[in-house]
Structures are given as C-alpha cells and as structure tokens.
C-alpha cells in the first residue's frame, strides 16, 4: 500500500520537485495529525507552558534557555504570544482529540489566560508584555 493513499508516485514526485524549485526543503511524512512540525511543536509548547504553571522558571528565562541551548530564534513562550493563546487552545483540542497524546492536552493556564484576555501580542499581554500590538511590523 502506498503511503500517499490516493496520490500517485508521479504526482508526489512533481510536488516534491515543485517545492524544491521554490527553494524549499520538502520532507516525506505520513498523512498524520500535525504531520511532523505540529506533532512535535504543540506538546513542546505545552511543556513550556507547564513549566510556567508549575513555577519552574519565569517565561523570559524559559525563552532564553531554549534560544541559547537549541539556537532557536524565538523562545516557545514568545512564539505562543505571537500565535495567540486562543489559537494554541484550538490546536491543543484538535491534536489531543486526534492523537490522545497527554502532552497535547490544553494546559489549564491557557484557558485562564484566555479568560483574562491575555492572548499574547495581539492584546498587548500574554506571557510577556507588549507596547506594540502590530504583527510583523504592519
């Protein structure tokens, strides 16, 4: 059985070549919830949220540790502020509902932040405080 179900090998190869022609680096994955990035990223971000919930460290320190140790350009809590707590809640509900992975379940702190309108950059406050709510220099 083909890993692509209804996609022919020729169509897959054309799509792969198209992605490469656009300067992208495609990867092959099964058709699974979140594919690779979100399957990894949603639980990873939830782990960072749980560190804050449990008082392990302050958001700025968690972000600094991740950026320094892993070389990421942005910490997980900075990324969550950019994406928005409301979006993270929806992502968690979708991923957990499909995979039943405990780490994908929405942390209680997310729901409390949404109730307090601390959605992230778009409201001026999430894990961090923002004086400018514009996204990407808009």
UniProtKB/TrEMBL annotation:
InterPro entries: 3HC_DH_C, 6-PGluconate_DH-like_C_sf, 6PGD_dom2, Mito_3-hydroxyacyl-CoA_DH. Residues 34-130 form the 3-hydroxyacyl-CoA dehydrogenase C-terminal domain. Gene3D superfamilies: N-(1-d-carboxylethyl)-l-norvaline Dehydrogenase, domain 2, NAD(P)-binding Rossmann-like Domain. GO terms for molecular function: (3S)-3-hydroxyacyl-CoA dehydrogenase (NAD+) activity. One of its GO terms (cellular component) is mitochondrion. Pfam families: 3HCDH. The keyword tRNA processing does not apply. Keywords: NAD. GO terms for biological process: fatty acid beta-oxidation. The keyword DNA-binding does not apply. PANTHER family: HYDROXYACYL-COENZYME A DEHYDROGENASE, MITOCHONDRIAL, PTHR43561. This is 3-hydroxyacyl-CoA dehydrogenase C-terminal domain-containing protein. It comes from Meripilus lineatus. The lineage of its organism: Eukaryota, Fungi, Dikarya, Basidiomycota, Agaricomycotina.
């Amino acid at each position: 059985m083909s890993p692509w179900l209804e996609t022919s090998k020729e169509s897959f190869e054309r799509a792969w070549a198209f992605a490469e022609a656009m300067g992208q680096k495609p990867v092959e994955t099964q058709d699974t919830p979140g594919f690779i990035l979100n399957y990894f990223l949603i639980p990873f971000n939830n782990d960072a949220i749980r560190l804050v919930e449990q008082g392990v460290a302050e958001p700025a320190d968690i972000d600094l540790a991740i950026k320094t140790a892993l070389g990421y350009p942005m910490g997980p809590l900075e990324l969550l502020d950019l994406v928005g707590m409301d979006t993270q809640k929806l992502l968690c509900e979708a991923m957990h509902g499909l995979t039943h992975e405990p780490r994908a379940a929405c942390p209680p702190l997310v729901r409390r932040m949404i109730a307090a309108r601390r959605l992230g950059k778009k409201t001026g406050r999430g894990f961090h405080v923002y004086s400018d709510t514009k996204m990407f220099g808009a």
